[in-house]
């Protein structure tokens, strides 16, 4: 369903203070101007993440994003100076989601394998939720060099955390010995491709896709008994 705004906002100075938001809405049912501004800004990021993730940022115009939100293109420039800035903010949102999902997985599970599978299950859930922010991570070249560098640093840190979890699983016996770096490249590459073929009205739900991926992972890296019983 398209979201709408009653009127285009008048120009205002942007605050340098980072605002805290509860979610993205595109209406006036909020308590103050700052909250209203940030909620609408988050609505733009959410819509852009969905469009960029499914079609690629180079194939989506700001006009199309504005139309989906039922606003004019000039209204978007009130929230973002350029398309490149919007693309960067989509990457930032994707990284925040990934960081939180990984943090939750570490807190909820005690073994390396349990943490990896919890991460995959919840990350795919976010990815398949209307093709949200994580899908943008495969579209890396459209940012400015400075923004690309910032996201690259964050992605390397994120990948290192995943590798550490794989290595912990090898040490605790829940994951078979393997190259942790290649394991992360493999399953994150597979996950990032979901946005290219998944459709919410298809034969599988997002949760079902996650379980299939986890079964593939289990057959690939989970430790097996060294002396299986032959029947």
UniProtKB/TrEMBL annotation:
Residues 1-23 are annotated as: Disordered. One of its GO terms (molecular function) is DNA-binding transcription factor activity. Coiled coil: none annotated. Transmembrane segments: none annotated. Residues 12-22 have a biased composition (Basic residues). Pfam families: TetR_C_24, TetR_N. The keyword Signal does not apply. Keywords: DNA-binding, Repressor, Transcription, Transcription regulation. Residues 61-80 bind DNA. The keyword Transmembrane helix does not apply. Residues 38-98 form the HTH tetR-type domain. This is TetR/AcrR family transcriptional regulator. It comes from Hydrogenophaga crocea. The lineage of its organism: Bacteria, Pseudomonadati, Pseudomonadota, Betaproteobacteria, Burkholderiales.
